[in-house]
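Exercise (ungraded).
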Amino acid sequence: MNEIRILKTCGNARAGELSTQHGIIKTPVLCPVGTQGSVKTLTPQDVKDVGMRIILANTYHLYLRPGIPVIAKLGGLHKFMNWDGAILTDSGGYQLYSLSKLRQINDEGVIFRSHIDGSRHTFTPELAIKYQELIGADIIMVLDECIDHNESRERVWAAMVRTHQWAERCQKAHNKQGQPLYAIVQGGVFPDLRKQSAEHLTALNFDGYAIGGLSIGEPKSVTFDITEQTTALLPSNKPRYLMGVGAPEDVVECVARGIDIFDCAMPTRVARNGALYTRTGRIDIENAVHKEQEDPIEVTCNCYTCRNFSAAYLHHLFRSKELLAYRLATIHNLAFMSSLVQSIRTSILDSTFDAFRKQFLSQYKTTDEQTRVSQKQKWLETRQKDTLD
Amino acid sequence: MNEIRILKTCGNARAGELSTQHGIIKTPVLCPVGTQGSVKTLTPQDVKDVGMRIILANTYHLYLRPGIPVIAKLGGLHKFMNWDGAILTDSGGYQLYSLSKLRQINDEGVIFRSHIDGSRHTFTPELAIKYQELIGADIIMVLDECIDHNESRERVWAAMVRTHQWAERCQKAHNKQGQPLYAIVQGGVFPDLRKQSAEHLTALNFDGYAIGGLSIGEPKSVTFDITEQTTALLPSNKPRYLMGVGAPEDVVECVARGIDIFDCAMPTRVARNGALYTRTGRIDIENAVHKEQEDPIEVTCNCYTCRNFSAAYLHHLFRSKELLAYRLATIHNLAFMSSLVQSIRTSILDSTFDAFRKQFLSQYKTTDEQTRVSQKQKWLETRQKDTLD
């Protein structure tokens, strides 16, 4: 149950099968983000229909709302949200860093105030495990200490050491069968610290290994380099999970560097801002060029949205702020990502991944930094009403 | 195509069949509101799945966005929104009164400024018909002049006379086969004016008759009395449509007074505010009593939402402002209304409508005035982000 079966490799790229209590997950895989027990705008059936069988949920959010006891009382998260696929939960380490207020952190754990109502709470490694067990996730994560990407080496080192201590405590606290526990390699942008972290954690023999603390502001070349250097130090018979990375081009590049599992809020978040994926890059559906476009967003796409609606209709829904817009766009972007990871997998199994990678990246116009920044700004402005993810 | 086939009556209540270019509509029927070419939060398939075959769209809104030429170019509204059921369009008379800015009205028509961008436009009876023909609606409405419910008798009379003149101009301008045109009886809360209006318009032999200018602030007993007095003056072989009325208890009461067709934004609008229909009245799903409710909203309900999710999950989605909440709630409320009109129809066909009416009204706790007012307040506060309907 706890290991990954690698079917084929192409250089560092791997195609495999990950067994979980809720089915076999074909890898590489991208987990869409269902932070609060809902992949935003979608029913569980919609998620299945785009071809996805594993989602990410978040311990920090679920702890605050509806509360772990409510989920436990109602039979666990699968039953609560009516999802029979697999669930991976993040421990909350990242949200304690990015969302909570007045955080005090020490070796024992984290004391914080809720971003919702300011109420005071404590997370410890042991509680993070207990909550994830009660949620009933199929894969759970250790509690880690997250920090900014531009912190000093000394600060990064200290957070890494604490993350290691917490990982051991998580491992001791964890005793639920069939619920693999993944460690999180930290060490920021410092290759030697990443090496130290990977070696320390692999010696503890976790069920899987995540790489944390990337894609949080560092240059993309650094993300890729650190990923490549770290996966080389991880055991080949264990799953490797790159946290918070999931732009189409990044998935291709990081599969090439040995990653099996991704999670990212980006495909669903940008969808709600009208940024839709196509083979040649992202389009802004609110742009006037789509006003009378009778074709769907992408003619070759087989998703529900593209099978049923013109780009002009999507354009109209977005311009009119109709709530249906956000669902149709989310379906399209997740179907695009689902299709992308399936194509990657097929190409690895066919030993044609290098060609696929080259062709995809030559076609796909990466969203430039300026667009990314204005997209992020748009998101920050709307996050209050849109709720967090 | 233009008449209604009455299968059975029970007192003034009628069960019938309305033929349209997009199928036969069983009456009584409630049209959900798809103001801007989308029943808010739902796909056309969702609307079908709740058992509805006719929706209302709005000429005023569609004229402003995406624009009539866009809809015409893309093959009409059915194709644009991918809806193969029937569409009834309101002419825009009510929205010109309630939404547009700096309205100037004279015998020729209405000059107004868009509520979206303040741009200047003109509507005339002839243009209202032309636009509805281009939209391709199955049933279209004359342009009428709407005014406040507490206007003077003189003012009501003048608006009624203008509505009559415009109705004649609409009739002359209309020449599309298979697209029945309904007149709108006005006359406010004055029985003699309503009588005058009904007689004037029935003499012109329209394809159907609507009752406008009700449920806009007058006491409910007045709504019922005027409806009853007016239907008595309308030809029994023509469909009768009560505009803007659609609370569950009002539908029952107005079917009893001879109405065949209703439209109302209420079931979908209040759904988005967490007010969900049950046989015993409306519940507020955000209320703490639902926090751990494992049962669905209504155990006997067969809608997608109740078949798949607990009330506790809906409660959580609403509290967390998850967008899925609004869709699941809308599905439930429309399924409730669909089931209600079906039950009404069955009871008329079985000659048990009086008993059904008595039983329904004895069980269904009408939402009190205070709740209605605070609900409306909540809606007004959110209408900016939620867009209008």
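Further reading is listed at the end of the chapter. For now, observe: Chain A touches chain B through 39 residues (CB under 8 Å). Chain A has a mean pLDDT of 94.
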